[in-house]
Write a structure and sequence with these properties.
The protein is of the alpha/beta class and about 450 residues long. The protein folds into three domains: about 35 residues, no CATH class; about 140 residues, Alpha-Beta Complex (Aspartate Aminotransferase, domain 1); about 260 residues, 3-Layer(aba) Sandwich (Aspartate Aminotransferase, domain 2), CATH 3.40.640. About 35% of the residues lie in helices and about 15% in strands. It contains 13 helices and 17 strands. The strands form five sheets. The chain has a seven-stranded mixed beta sheet with strand order 4-10-9-8-7-5-6, sandwiched between helices. The protein has a four-stranded antiparallel beta sheet with strand order 13-14-17-16. A two-stranded parallel sheet has the order 1-2. Helix 1 links the parallel strand 1 and strand 2. Helix 3 runs antiparallel to helix 10, helix 4 runs parallel beside helix 10 and helix 5 runs parallel beside helix 6. It is globular, with a radius of gyration of 26 Å. The protein starts with a strand and ends in a 5-residue tail after the last helix. The structure holds D-malate (MLT). The site of D-malate has 5 residues, from loops. The site of D-malate (MLT) has 5 residues, from loops.
């Protein structure tokens, strides 16, 4: 008797569709078939709502442009910079590239945490200059704050309760969903297991402290998307909460360079006690125009502790260092030299000019929209302008209307969380003439309010 046995990968489909498979079996008396189980996905990914916000916007804009090839679309959606790199950073990068071309100054792998020259410059110019002590070895240089603020949750227990403001930068939520720290999303758009802290015009964009204990609290100031900035008093309240509840604050200060009001804090460490409870994320993307260059850093103070399941305390710094060294090989040398140049006298001047340019754009957006009768928030110490949609229009409805009727792209507030519904974000990262034209078009579409 002729017998054969074989594994059939499920991916090829049912064998009945493969005639050659049956030909090969002709003449056999007994056939044992075994279907190999297909590899299982991380099913938490299936809980995610549609696509990531910005690719979804890009998809809609692409679809519209294909149908309307002559439309001159102005993009004020994703917060991507447009001004070219400061000369000081370009010169530093070129010099570093030349060094890499000489046997005596060539460098291979650098320190995973970043070169001392950059970590020291950051400690001095970003922190010591504001009376804050951050040691260079508490700074971890990386390729982006999006990555850092998304990756940080990995070093905390899967059972950690997270709290986010609502609306919120979607990365904080999505990375926790991917990790399996949440349940399913409800019809209202909230993920089960996350503490949402509504941040709306009704509470002056100052969310109340959670009533239950949160283990990890994501805060962003100047805020993406609302453009509001936390005061010293706001930060003190959070540091106190974190101390009382043994929580850790994940403070995203990627937009700190847009703060011009001298009474507002740039860093959470300007508040006493924050070193014990907070991690801070910073980036060169929005101040120095590095969105395409990639350089950022995360500050993890040595005092910051977390407990294991048996209640023993461990330094978070050591854990993040372990994670960083395992998964990251450092930012390239030329890019770190470019980042260092941001702190030179010339670099500071160039960055200041770029920030002023974008803040002026933000003012034009704010004033233009306000003149149509819309309620406008943010955009003073932040690059984002947050606007209430007219006549309680849905965020995506307003998005579609502006795209189709004014050929202007913004970001629907609902994309940042359920409490963002009924709001819309416009980014000031654009060329002046485009900002002016976009506002003119929106004004002609919306008209001026009846007096
Ligand atoms: C935004 O538009 O919210 C930002 O560009 C997102 C980011 O920096 O990743």
């Amino acid at each position: 008797m002729k017998i054969t046995g074989c594994f059939i990968p499920q991916s090829i489909g049912h064998p009945g569709i493969l005639p050659e498979f049956f030909e090969a079996l002709a003449g056999l008396d007994l056939i044992v078939l075994n279907f190999a189980p297909m590899t299982t996905l991380n099913t938490h990914y299936q809980k995610l709502k549609a696509g990531y916000l910005f690719p979804e916007i890009a998809r809609r804009v692409r679809e519209f442009s294909v149908q309307n090839p002559n439309a001159k679309i102005i993009r004020l959606g994703i917060g991507d910079v447009v001004l070219p790199l400061p000369l000081s950073t370009r010169n530093a990068m070129k010099k570093a590239v030349d060094e890499m071309g000489e046997p005596t100054s060539f460098r291979g792998y650098g320190p995973e945490q970043g070169y001392d020259f950059l970590r020291e410059a950051i400690a001095k110019h970003d922190f010591a200059s504001r009376g804050v002590t951050i040691h260079p070895d508490e700074i971890f240089v990386s390729d982006g704050s999006k990555c850092d603020s998304g990756n940080i949750q990995e070093i905390f227990d899967i059972g950690s309760k997270i709290a986010v403001t609502d609306p919120v930068y979607p990365v904080y939520v999505d990375t926790n969903v991917m990790a399996g720290r949440t349940g399913e999303v409800s019809a209202s758009g909230h993920y089960e297991g996350i503490i949402y802290m509504p941040s709306t015009a009704e509470n002056n964009f100052t969310p109340a402290l959670p009533k239950e204990k949160a283990d990890l609290i994501y805060l962003c100031s100047p805020n993406n998307p609302t453009g509001t900035v936390m005061t010293h008093e706001d930060l003190k309240r959070w540091v106190r909460y974190a101390k009382e509840n043994d929580s850790i604050i994940l403070f995203d200060a990627a937009y700190h360079a847009f703060i011009t009001n001298p009474s507002l804090p740039h860093s959470i460490y300007e508040v006493e006690g924050a070193r014990d409870v907070a991690i801070e994320f910073r980036s060169f993307s929005k101040n120095a125009g590095f969105t395409g260059i990639r350089c950022a850093f995360t500050v993890v103070p040595k005092e910051l502790m977390a407990k294991n399941k048996s209640g023993e305390k461990f330094g978070v710094h050591a854990l993040w260092n372990r994670r960083h060294c395992t998964k990251f090989n450092g930012v390239s040398y030329p890019v770190q030299r470019a980042a260092e140049a941001v702190y030179s006298a010339e670099g500071k001047k160039e960055v200041d000019e770029m920030i002023r340019y974008y803040l002026n754009n933000a003012r034009i957006i704010r004033e233009g929209l306000a003149s149509t009768g819309l309620k406008v928030y943010g955009g003073v110490d932040a690059p984002y302008v947050w606007v209430k949609t007219p006549q309680n229009m849905g965020s995506w409805e307003f998005f579609d209307m502006l795209l189709k009727e004014a050929h202007v792209v913004g970001t629907p507030g609902a994309g940042f969380g359920p409490s963002g519904e009924g709001y819309f974000r416009l980014s000031s990262f654009g060329f002046r003439e485009n900002i002016e034209e976009a506002i003119q078009r929106i004004k002609s579409r919306l008209g001026t309010p009846a007096r």
